[in-house]
Design brief:
Layout: E1 2-5, E2 16-19, H1 43-50, H2 57-67, H3 77-91, E3 93-94, H4 106-111, E4 116-117, H5 119-132, E5 137-143, E6 163-171, E7 175-178, E8 185-186
């Protein structure tokens, strides 16, 4: 939950907010076996979180990726998600220099092109690959800030280049689970 706070010095800051965050403390393995689409969801909710472009390449690629999974985990949506995440991390290349991913379906241009892009491209690719497997997903937007910038006080300065996008999948009985993609190859300096 985000709450706007009064500014101590309006000449120095644009806005101040108080934020509550939730963090998954269970290992991913403990989440295995959970269904991804709750029986309690309406048809509209299911349609919203499973909506896909008409391009059949998404389904073909995701089927190819999950086909090579360990047979013990066939049908487990979390394990499918981890296989899709691994694929994007292995095959993708993180670059802030990519500026040409525009058009009617920029995600297809990324995923079926040279797979060079940044967090927004990886997040949307993951979300659509998940959806093509019948797993509800969404893309979240926010900030990824290094904790070392916290200092001794309770405030944290957030800069524009801290913006981040990440995919989330739904697991019944758990809720929305972040399943961020961290490509192994990049032309950016590694963060500490």
């Amino acid at each position: 939950m985000v709450r706007r706070q009064p500014l101590d010095d309006p000449r120095q800051f644009v806005g101040a907010y108080d934020v509550d965050s939730w963090l998954l403390t269970s290992d991913f393995e403990r989440l295995a076996g959970h269904a991804s689409v709750p029986a309690t969801w309406s048809a509209d909710e299911k349609q919203h979180y499973l909506k896909m472009p008409a391009d059949p390449r998404y389904q073909a690629l995701s089927n190819q990726i999950v086909r090579d999974m360990d047979p013990r985990f066939v049908g487990d949506d979390l394990m499918k998600a981890l296989a899709l995440k691994h694929y994007l991390e292995q095959k993708g290349f993180y670059s802030l220099k990519e500026k040409s991913l525009v058009g009617a379906d920029p995600t297809a241009k990324f995923l079926f092109g040279d797979m060079r892009g940044y967090c927004v491209h990886f997040a949307h690719a993951m979300a659509l690959l998940l959806r093509s497997q019948g797993i509800p997903s969404r893309v979240a937007l926010g900030y990824a800030v290094q904790t070392r910038r916290h200092g001794a006080g309770s405030s944290l300065l957030i800069l524009g280049n801290d913006a981040h996008a990440w995919p989330e999948m739904y697991l019944d009985g758990v809720g929305w689970v972040t399943i961020d993609v961290y490509p192994e190859h990049s032309d950016e300096q590694p963060q500490p």
